[in-house]
Amino acid sequence: MAELKVYSTIGVRSAAEGLLAQFEETSGHKLAITLSITWGTAPMLVKRIEGGETADVLILSRAGIDTLLQQGKIAPGSDVTLASSGVGIAIKAGAPKPDISTPEALKRTLLNAKSIAYSEPSAGGASGASGVYLAKLLERMGIADAMKPKTKYPPPGGFSASLLITGEAELAVQQKPELMHVAGAEIVGLLPGDLNVVTEFAAGIAADSRHAEASKALIKMLRSAEAAAVFRSKGLDPH
Predict the structure, then answer these.
(1) H or E stretch including 213?
(2) pLDDT value for 1
């Protein structure tokens, strides 16, 4: 049985985990493959490919896929956009929902919060990008200094909502599907209006993949109506 190596960003893990397991179960006999899945942030995985590691299918941010396309590490024409997501705010399930309906309400909510968790800006990936964006947004709102003492970071490649469950944070900010991945977290909503930022996720086949047929079958499944429903249920907007 052949091993199909998949490198995937945690940005879509909430949806992709079940879809990949289903693909392995339903197509394993027909294609004689088993999946080997590596999870990480998109820049972490891009660096590993650039460093000489090999995979068959890459599921990354659109920016990560485009970087590898330019380097000739992804087969031309094999890339597809799967879904996109915005940046959301979550609380521990059952806690009072704060008002984030307008930029002014969001500012008040952030200032009133005892603690907040978001990805360390240097972490990389869609989650790291949300951290970079939020750090800049806090500066733009003029509250960066006030927020610093009550800011907590999850481990690199981790989920900020996990700090809600441990009680270390009152609010968590990250990509919506990453927030939804943590059991016991509840989404309040996306950042309001034009303060929100959307990240696209895409997939492609490595130029040196030895399992082209299985790779094509996997990407076709990820583009199916059934997969779109799963993406949607996990906080992603399918394309």
Answers:
(1) helix 212-222
(2) 73
